[in-house]
Amino acid sequence: MSKSMKVLEVIKSLVAAYIFTGIALLALAFAIYKWSLTETVVNIVIMAIYVLASFIGGFITGKRVKERKFFWGLLLGGLYILIIYGVSLILSASMDMISTASIAACLLCLGGGMLGGMLS
User: Fold this and answer.
1) SS3 state at 25
2) Which of 19, 28, 81, 96 has the fewest Cβ atoms nearer than 10 Å?
3) Quick check: 114 and 60 in contact, CB under 8 A?
4) Residue 74 CA: distances (Å) to CA of 45, 47, 91, 109
5) In angstroms, rounded to a whole number, what is the distance separating the alpha carbons of residues 34 and 85?
6) Is the overall model pTM greater than 0.70, yes or no?
7) Cβ atoms of residues 64 and 16 within 8 Å
8) What pLDDT was estimated at residue 93?
């Protein structure tokens, strides 16, 4: 498989990861409305959604690429969180990029994507 085909597979997997993210965040919004969840619980669930979406995307990428799966999963996790931070930065100029929570989210998404790729 050529490198351009691998990149295309990563993009397709990113789309799948963002579709999962959208559905999961809609379910979270419903849960917040229905049960008035605390901010701490919401932040934990959002982080779990990000990691699970990275894992799913890495898993799909690994299944399609079939060589150096960990690398392509890691790439997917990095692109996933980079796009989220980019959109957040555009929508809210006051976002703190160097915080413990953002570093943790970045590392967890990288790890989730890589683990998904390795387990595929």
Assistant:
1) helix
2) 96
3) no
4) 22, 17, 26, 8
5) 28
6) yes
7) no
8) 67
Please list the alpha-helical segments (H only) found in 36-67. Answer: 39-65
The set of residues, in sequence order, having a beta carbon less than 8 Å from that of 12 and lying 6+ positions away, is: 60, 64
The rounded distance, in Å, linking the Cα atoms of 50 and 77 is: 9
| Nearest residue to 81 (alpha-carbon basis) of 56, 57, 110 | 110
One-letter amino acid at 29 equals A
Q: What is the pLDDT of residues 1-49, one digit of tens each?
A: 788 899 999 999 999 999 999 999 999 999 999 998 999 999 999 999 9
Which residue type is seen at 61?
A: T
Cα(114)–Cα(71) distance, integer angstroms: 7
Q: At which residue do the structure tokens 């796009």 appear?
A: 83
19's tokens: 């579709």
